[in-house]
Structures are given as structure tokens and as C-alpha cells.
């Protein structure tokens, strides 16, 4: 059952890591040049001059990958070493997760995590029920129940019977379908069908069940448990700049070959002309023909110019990535003090891509929300309760409530006036309202003596029952046909006559009870859209309640309407008889029961409405607003229900009330013929009914006409995983719905060679990416990854995925950047992530500050590294025209060796580490600055071309100004030798490069100044050391320029030449800077900078609520169908507890 998320082991690390590293074109290029240097006939530099730095580069990158992988090994070891109980012989023994094998029987206790995919055999609950929480798999917070087969429940009651169990399970091949399972159990000559309701999946957590036993069906990674099937494989991620650098290496190499070829051909012609004119020197070429000489010079020039692709750039780049990752780790603004969790850059090679994100794919549960439901407000009989300032009152009086259970801690209520009204007990509507909250639910209760512990199937139900308890209506116990509550200190037992179960279509649940006086009442709670349509009358109180619902919706609270009515004895008897008959039908049972439920749930009296807050993580709405202003689109992908996802969408301001919302069910209810080309998209949006649930197109059209037209970017689309499956299976939607708009959207959008499925994919992505927000609900982990992959494939966009659970792992691996939320129960998301944060809100600083800075720094670093390389070293090409095209180096070998390492590396390094165009505060105040990275403005092929031309120009000026000056320099003290000429050209190029970096550095620190100073000092120091007479005497073959710098730089004429070259090289840059400053910036970045300077106030403010033009329900309820049946059958009930009054 062992899992492995690490990429390497002891045997595979070296070959696999080298294989990955040599996927970089630069490394292949360097190896090619090193091989050329091994031939003495063409070598112009010793072979080890490139081998040593290449070895350093490979070792540094290898160590970085090794450190990252060691962390994954440690995380794997932590998970694989978790303890579990496995049946060994006739008893259970504690072993580790990795010891589990297929066919083992495992015992699980309450709150333990399921270690593998299991067939539930039995449990300590009645009828072998097992309650599980699947938040780490599908994001749903409500509890789900699984039930063992009756035969295993009855026969496997002891360890001895389990040891003797010899059943044979035949099941489907391992697959990634999380919600389905097909198999059979053959035991004792009989075959029993198995489905998903009998299976416990790896990663879910056992809740409210003391003990359960399961047979392992799928285990670990190698035997493909469903969650591991959904996790995907680890892929090496490369940034956009990495891909561009690979292509640029090819371009530069081709330019190098063309240049070398041209110079080599010229050398052949020159050699032939030289032999004809100077026959006395013809002996130099007696062993080679001009063609052979050209061939040898071609490779000589290739080696000589190979340093145009500097290896030191890659080594320095690795250091910059590492240090900038440390800056992320050390940022106290992303440190979560409550749990002592800092931000962590788990991958050090993706920092610049943080500044280019276009789409964020976020999980909901645990990422945007805290998984905490709290009863915030309510409306009873037209009166709204839930005003601020109640905490003080509760703190003073909460512990003295007369109905509070012995030993219970102080509990919160939502409003002091509501508490006082409940205590007075003089409002019959309020009394019925609170009684309904205590009676109409499927919660189980456990009395531990000192406190009552509620075991709810959903956090919503628990919040409502706790609210009733806080206000004096305490749910005490239930049996198969009764429920006992304490009403303001008085214990009352109600007979449960029927429970009308919740499901996603009904959007409500009801309970029929007989009170101690014999009166029969129906209590109903559900969505406002269904309850309000079933009221007996609409009066002033109902109107006030509807307004309250609107207000709650504006505050993005999860609402339910509650209602009741009295049922006569005769009506109940007639209805009950028909209900019993419908319950045993073999055909149309569900439809008949729904019809009876509908009949009973009529003529209701509205009692009020509840408002529950699904608490968001701190700062989520503000973060999403900032990201949207930075032109980043946020998509929410969740396994939760649509209503819950939409409610959170409004709460976090991903959805706004002025958006037009497209839902799949409403589109499918409005078939449109393909001929209506221009009207299709319009009909799409007109068919929306804003979550009212009716799907009535004409009604939707009227609502659409009553509200102002939304701008084109204020649209959102909400789809489900099933719908996603349809449109992503090749052509299935087109076959099923001939009038489907996808058909028209696909026409003419792709090449004829593309398959029908590809057309549908592209049409869907085009539609989704044209929306401001996308919410996908009820999606599997595999579908989450598929959504990310589709956007990457069809939009070539940079994507980021953020999540906290095992269900997010595949999505995190697939995205260009994966962010794991740490500090929660699951660790798998963090293990597979590139960056780990404690809160979603830290994402704004990670992207808008660190991401943008890193992109700016890396782009400037690359630009200047290429510039200084071209400016300093291309002079060797011009020198070839004056040295007979003989591949003779212009510069001293030490200058070539140290130019990119010491002389010019430090100023560029300081830019790569410290550069800022604006402060962190301004970056957050003006998120529009982020657009620069999305548009690749700072480093692209155009910028590279300009940099190349700039470098060529600098090298030409440095070379030919010096050559012109030296040609006219005569006299006994004139300096005109080759060595002095070389030093003068080198110094001119070096100073021009340093001045260029100084001019374009925006953020100066002491370190920046020291870096520039150090470059000049190191040039002087190494020049005089390597060119000293003593060094020449020791090794004349290595130190070939004795006193060259001293002779040249002590001559005022040479210094004037250097100054002239510097001025001529710098004037164009000064002119461009002045032009931009006077006329205004032409780029997006400069325009926003100008705005930032003129407007010092923050531009990011959350908008006040915009009144809605159409009705929107804020109903959301996390519940699973089937709990009412469990209660009425008695499957979920233990022995009844007794309570005194």
C-alpha cells in the first residue's frame, strides 16, 4: 500500500536527472562545444574551460532537484508509516500503512483516515452503517453513509469469523471514477452485488462510527486506489522563459554557425590571396589548401564565439532563483502566526512564472472556506434578528441559561433580542420556529453525561440544531418513531409519523409529528424558491421575509425558509394509507412518493428564514478583487453541490449581482436551430434564470429585459462534472442536441483536420475563457486536471492551481504553478505543490509582489546578460576582418575567462536579486501592473532583437573608435601595439556595459552600489595581476600581456579614447530615456507607473452592493439523500437514552 510521489531513488537519480537536464538546449550546446575543444587542430581554448563550469552547473541543478526530492521522500515516508490495524491470524495487530496488501482485513476507528479502497464488511453502528467525511476527496463537507451487506453484517461479528472469511470479490479494473463501483462478492455459494455504497475510499475519514472493518480491494500506488489514479504523475515544469531560452539558444547557435561559416569562407579567400601576394610566407600554408584552412577556421570560430551563449548566465540564474525563493520563505507578510506556518517555495525554478499567471483554478472547501458553519441571522414573522454587539451580552449571561445542559460550555446565540424573545415565550410564531429547528432534521445525538454531542450529516443541520439549543430548544434523543426535545426546560416527546426526505430536486425536507396534546403538524424547511410557492397566503409578514431573504443574499449567507401547517387526523390517515402503498411499489415508487410529498407540502404557513454563514478564510474577497484587477481570472473547481459553490462564489465576490450567469440546465431547455447563427450567444444569456431553479425561458427573457445589459466581460458560467464529461467526449453533445450552440461555435473555428471532439473542446474553452468567472461543481479530481489542461492546450495561458486536499493533487501537478494550502488535515496537496501557503489571501502577495518582482528581475537579468555578452565579445568578429580571418582572439584569455564571472556579473546579479520598479505597497495598490508579465512585455523576441542590435552597436563603437584612434596615434611615446589595443577595446566595452546597467536600475541599495564598484576594482586588480611582468616570467604561455594595462591606461590619449567610446555608446540610451520621460511611456508598464505617480491613493476598493435586477436565491444546503430512510427504518439508531425533565 506504499505510495510514492518522489521522482528519484538511489539508482535512478543520476541517469534520470541528467536526462532531464539535457532536455535543456543550452546543456546540449555546451557539450557539443566541449567535444570540439578536444581537437587540437581547431581548438582556440583549452577543453577544460567549459567542462568545469558545465560540471558546476549540472551539480548545482542536480543538488537542487535532490533536495526537493528528499522532501517528497520524507512526506511519503510520513504517510506510509501511519499506523493501522490489520488482521493477522485471529487478531488485529498494529502495523503501518505500507504493510497493507490487497485482501487484508483492516479495522478502523472513529476519526481515522481510510488507508486504501475498502469493501465495508461491518461496523459497530446499527445495520453496519459507517459515516464518512469525503472533504479531502470531493470537497463536500456533509457526512455520507456507507452500509455493509446484510450477510457480512450478520456473519462477521467477531475476529474469529473474520479470520475464517473466505469470500471472493470480483471487481472492475482500477479506474479513476470516484463515484461508481461495480463488483460482486461470492461467499458460501451465493453471489452478492456490490456498488459504491459499500466502498470506503482511501483518503476519506471515518466519523461518528466507533469501529468499522473493511476488506482491501485497491491499495497504494501500484495497485491503483481511486484517489491515486486521480493524482496524475509528476512532470518537470518549465516556465515560459525556459521554453523561450531553449528557442533562443537555437537561434543564437544558428547565428553563430552562419557567422562562423561566413568568416571561414572569407578566411579561405584571404589565404589564397595571401599566398599569391606574399610567396615568401607561403610555407605557412604548405600543408593545407585554402578550403582546408577555411574548414579548420570554421570550427575555430565556432569555439571562439561559443561564449556568446555564456554558461555563467545559467549558473547565476540558478543562484538568483534560489535567493528569490528564500525571499518568499522569509516574507513575514505571508507568515501565518496562528499556526506558525511560513510560506514555502518548494520549487526554486518557477519564480518568474508567478508574474505571468492568467488563470487561477481554485478548490473551494478548505481553500476559500474554513469549513465552519455558523448561525448568523434569522427572520421570524417578518422581524430580522442578528444585530452586531451581541457578544458582550452572551459573555455576561450565556453561562447562566436555565436550560443549559449540565457541564456544557458557554454557547453563542446570534442576537440578544432573539434570546430575550425566546425566554419570554410569548410569541407563538417564534416558538414554532425554534421548535421546527429542533425537530426537522436527521441529526443523531450522543449523551456523554457531561455534554450532548450531535452527529450531523451536514454542517448546516448541525448549525441549525445548535442554534435551537442555544435559544432553549434542546434536541435530546430520538428513536425510530419518536424525538425528544427540551423546550425552555420542559421535556416533550413527539411521535414521528413520517419523514419526507431531502433530495437535490425537492430542495426541502419535512417531518410529520404528533405533539403530546395529539395535534399533528408538518414542519418543512428548504429553499425559498420552493417554500414560497407552497404557502397558503402571502401577507405583509411574507413580504418582509422575502425582503429579508434578499438582504441575506446580499450578505452572501446560506438561507433556508421554514414553514409549518396543522394536519387533520382524517387527512393524515388518508395520506398515510396511500404513502404505505406507494412505499412498496415495484415500479414508479420514487415518482409516486414525490407526488405524495408534494401533496402534503401545500398550504404552508411561513414561520421565517434562517441565514447561515459558511465562513470564508480571511481576506478571500479582497484577494479575488485584486487578482481580477490584475487581469487574472479565477475559476472555482469543486466537488461540492452547485448551490453551495454558487453561494461561496457570491460570498468571495467572484460572482456579482450585475453578472449574467449561464447554467447548463437552462441552456439545454432552450434548443436553438443551427440556422440562428447571430442569435445563439444572445439566447444563451437570455435563457439564464439566475438560479431561480425554474428554467423557464420566457420568464428568464422577461427578467433579462428588465435589467440593464451587462458588459461583455461581466458574465459567468456554472457547469457540473457530468456536463463537462458530455462536452469533452468526442462529439457526444453534438450527437445528442442538434440545436446545441456548440455546433455553431465550432464551425470555422479550427482546421478541417481536427476531430469533432477537438472542435467541441475548443468551443467550450473559448466560451469559458470569455467569461469573467467560471464555477465547476461536482467535478472529480481528474476533471479538475482536465480543465487546467484544456486551458493550457487551447489558450497557451499560464495557469495556477491552488488546493488543500488529495482531490486537488492532479490539478496542482497539471498546472504551470501548483500551490498547496498547508496547515490543514491533508498533506498530499502540499507534497505535490510548487509553493505552500497557509492562507488563500497570501496568494495576492505571492503573485502581485513576489511574482511580478521575480519576472521583472529575471527579464532584466537576461536582457542585460545578453547585452553585455554581445557588447563585450562580438568585437572578436570585427577583429577577424583585421587579422586575416584566422580565428585569432582579440582579448587576453584571462579577460575572456573573467568577463562574465567577475567583471560584469555582480551588477547584473544585484538586478536579478534586488530590482524593484515599485514598492510592495504600490504593487498591491496598482494590481494593473501585473498585466506586463501576462503580455510578455519585458522579455520577448522583439526585446531580444533590440538587445542584440544594442550589443552589436556597442561592440562596433568600442572596436572601431579605438581602431580609428590608434591608427592616427604616432610618435615615440605612442601606444599602438596589439595588447594595448585589446585592453582599450575591453575597457571601453566594460564601462559602456556598466553605465547602461546603472542607467536602467530603478532600485538602488548599498549592495547595488558596491556591486558596480566591485566590478571596476576587480577589473583593475585582475588586469594588473595577470598582466604583471613577474607573472609573464613565471608562465609566458599563460600570461601573454605583460604590462599591457599599465602601458595603455597611463596614457592620457588612451583614456580619452575610452571616454569618447563611452560617451558615444551612452548617448543613444540617454536619448531614449529622455524621450520616454518627456513624451510618456509607450508600454503598459510605463503608463501604469505614470498613473501610480500621479495618484498616490490606493485604487483598489471593494464595491458597495449593486441592487440586483433579478431575483437570486441564496439557498444552499449540504445534505445527502437517504438519511430519513435510515432513521425511520431504525438502521442508524442505538438504544434510546433517557432524560429527566
UniProtKB/TrEMBL annotation:
Compartments it resides in: Cytoplasmic vesicle, Secretory vesicle, Acrosome membrane; Endoplasmic reticulum membrane; Membrane
One GO term describing the cellular component: plasma membrane
Cofactor dependency: Mg(2+)
SUPFAM superfamilies: Calcium ATPase, transduction domain A, Calcium ATPase, transmembrane domain M, HAD-like, Metal cation-transporting ATPase, ATP-binding domain N
Residue intervals of the P-type ATPase C-terminal domain: 830-1078
Principal cellular location given in the protein's record: membrane
Record-annotated membrane-spanning stretches: 21-39, 248-271, 298-323, 861-881, 893-914, 943-966, 978-999, 1006-1025, 1053-1079
Entry membrane topology: Multi-pass membrane protein
Family classification: Belongs to the cation transport ATPase (P-type) (TC 3.A.3) family. Type IV subfamily.
Protein name (record): Phospholipid-transporting ATPase
